[in-house]
Amino acid sequence: MGCGYDSSANNRERISKLTDWGEKNMPTSDKDPAHADMLILLTRVSLAQMGSTCATKFGRTVNNDIGLASAIIIAHEAAHTFGLGHDGKGARCNNGEYIMSSAVSDGQNAFKWSPCSSKLIQDFLTGSGSSCLDDNPHDFIHEPTIFHNKLPGQIMNAIFQCRLQYGSQYYHVPRE
């Protein structure tokens, strides 16, 4: 992508370079239908600019690329751009259990929002601070048409995804 940093760059430098890249390569006016509300970069570290969605030209996240499970990291970092902190800090919800844990969690709630985070996300989305997200959808979609109106697994089944993630010698074993 060419953001202009090298592997020795720290997280703040990466966010700064991503911002520079966005300002040079993306429409910066929210009135432009091609404007991105959030910039997401997959790399080997994770960091978000706290509260940056709608408060700046773009929400910004740098996300650890761990394959298909990167989606949960992107959700976590995106929530930081909405202003959410980690569960457990001044909240009733336990740290280490849900998406907004301070470290990647496992278990049955690892892919769920805690009640605390759910409320904060709803507060953000229904408040005036999220107005940049209220654009009307437009006809262009930035993905191949083969993916339009498809659910996960309809184009690439579990076996294909498993092999994509881990290599050709692996296969998917369904949970019982």
Automatic annotation (TrEMBL):
Keywords: Metal-binding, Zinc. The active site is at E77. GO terms for biological process: extracellular matrix organization; proteolysis. PANTHER family: ADAM METALLOPEPTIDASE WITH THROMBOSPONDIN TYPE 1 MOTIF B, ISOFORM B, ADAMTS A DISINTEGRIN AND METALLOPROTEASE WITH THROMBOSPONDIN MOTIFS PROTEASE. One of its GO terms (molecular function) is metal ion binding. Residues 1-137 form the Peptidase M12B domain. Transmembrane segments: none annotated. One of its GO terms (cellular component) is extracellular matrix. Pfam families: Reprolysin (PF01421). It comes from Desmophyllum pertusum. This is Metalloendopeptidase. Zn(2+) binds at H76, H80, H86.
